[in-house]
Amino acid sequence: MKSVIAEHLVKTYRKGEVVALNDLSLDVEEGTVLGVLGPNGAGKTTTVRILATLLKPDSGHATVAGIDVVKNPDKVRELIGLSGQYAAVDETLTGWDNLVMFGRLYHLGRQPSIDRANDLLERFDLTEAARRPIKTYSGGMRRRLDLAASLIVKPKILFLDEPTTGLDPRGRQDMWGVIQELVKGGVTLLLTTQYLEEADQLADEIAVIDRGTVIARGTSDALKTQVGGERLEITVENTDVAAAQEIVARVSGHATHLDLRTISAPVSTGSVALMNALRALDEAKIHPLDIGLKRPSLDDVFLSLTGHVAEETVQETKKKKRGGKK
């Protein structure tokens, strides 16, 4: 059963000058995680805002739990949770006050709101900070509180729009653990991200969006296979390069690629090709400095599909260049 269905969504801004969504269609199977992967400006947030009833499409149709998001937005809101890119909490209030306030806004009643707030604060390891103002929280704590707020009504369907944006690696790992627990509890999840590793780690299926439309969809493994499968890579001493290149070409049956002392070629037999290469190298008395099978990463997938790297890779490259300046 499909918990979320979006069909031919179109959304433009500035009287049609800016196209955010261009005939976008996707769906999410009940009890699964769909990772929506794309760079900044690809249309991820616009998609979430339409599905969460915060924005109306110019055309197209969308349902959540079988309910039309345009015709019956109130019914949709009763079933969903939403955590956006930026924490939607009041910084002047404490964490506990924020969660109780969200409970009251959802008409849970005073005591049920207090009970739910206490449960969520414990679940997200925020009990010790519960009575502190949000402005004293770290970025990771704010993100956890925002996610807790989205779970006040125990939603069946959860939309997470770049939930780990701005977190350090440790904070990102912690958030992944929380998300995985939610999925084990039966929540259907649509997760948008520009982090390739995040989609690989969390999603049952991945939809790749670029310029407002879905350009590919499948499991992480299926998308990687689409790029070209495994490659055999061998690094040897300079004096052994020519002989090793002949061996790799013979084992793989394909033309080789040479990068300094590293020879690579596509292989279809995986570990069998690796073992054959090791035997041939041993017979030729060549001792490789490194040898292995390399599967395409989601970085490779994104580059192959879109013709450009994901925003995450661009930002990381810029950071490394800045860090290398003296």
Automatic annotation (TrEMBL):
Residue span, ABC transporter domain: 4-236
GO MF annotation terms: ATP binding; ATP hydrolysis activity
Alphabetically ordered keywords of this record: ATP-binding, Cell membrane, Membrane, Nucleotide-binding, Translocase, Transport
Chief localisation class: membrane
Gene3D superfamilies: P-loop containing nucleotide triphosphate hydrolases
Cited InterPro entries: AAA+_ATPase, ABC_transporter-like_ATP-bd, ABC_transporter-like_CS, ABC_transporter_ATP-binding, DrrA, P-loop_NTPase
Compartments where located: Cell membrane
Membrane topology: Peripheral membrane protein
Entries under PANTHER family matching the protein: ABC TRANSPORTER ATP-BINDING PROTEIN, DOXORUBICIN RESISTANCE ATP-BINDING PROTEIN DRRA
Family named by the database record: Belongs to the ABC transporter superfamily. Drug exporter-1 (DrugE1) (TC 3.A.1.105) family.
Protein name: Unannotated protein
Originating species: freshwater metagenome
